[in-house]
Amino acid sequence: MALLTAKTFSLQFNNKRRVNNPYYPRKALLCYQLTPQNGSTPTRGHLKNKKKDHAEIRFINKIKSMGLDETQCYQVTCYLTWSPCPSCAGELVDFIKAHRHLNLRIFASRLYYHWRPNYQEGLLLLCGSQVPVEVMGLPGPRSDTTQEGEFPGQSNVQEEEGKIGERKQEFLALQLLPLGPVWFPSSISEFTDCWENFVDHKEPPSFNPSEKLKELDKNSQAIKRRLERIKSRSVDVLENGLRSLQLGPVTPLSSIRNSR
Questions:
Q1: Quick check: is 56 catalytic?
Q2: I want to staple 79 with a disulfide (CB 3.0 to 4.6 A). Which of 12, 24, 31, 239 is the partner?
Q3: What is the C-alpha to C-alpha distance for residues 177 and 171, in angstroms, rounded to an integer?
Q4: Residue in 56, 70, 150, 190 annotated catalytic
Q5: pLDDT tens column, 199-230
């Protein structure tokens, strides 16, 4: 496959709040990795917006053209410079619903128009349809109790979810939301993985890669918090939905989250 240049990676995955002088447009770029569960070699590629087709739509068309074996499951990871727009979010949800053998996970370097309600709804639609959306970022320090294949703090999340899990399942079932498989990759660096697998390293870059990755990680922390605030809206919707269904008293999730 054609690889990105180090300059393209540095400029387009730049997650600073504003672009310093000289100004340049930060374009939509999508890097994808398709991994068959039978252990075959992953398929990688990258796409950008072309005319009226966003990179996400081109990605959907690309996967469709591969003629994948629908009896085999595939894990698909996408690294995006910008999170999907509402229209692309809907197209991705429809695509995954029609292709249950694909398990898609999205990582974005930046959030696109994150302050607009319809763009927030698009992100929530993806997450509510078993298409996890996260912000790219280098992993933090792992605790001694963190197991391989878990995210740091995953055990605490599981414990909290167990307190409301039964009523949550009833609510989701009534809403006819898909409860497909959710996979948790091992603790790796999304920026590092993208740098190592999608960038041409034949020519030495004009910057220090290690320092660049540290800078991206530092900038990502505020973006991660912003996304979590958006996701918290879905928790409020769940609480209200459980109450309206009269499934019994519901322990507020906010109190569970703040218990520590």
A1: yes
A2: 31
A3: 9
A4: 56
A5: 999 999 999 999 999 999 999 999 999 999 99
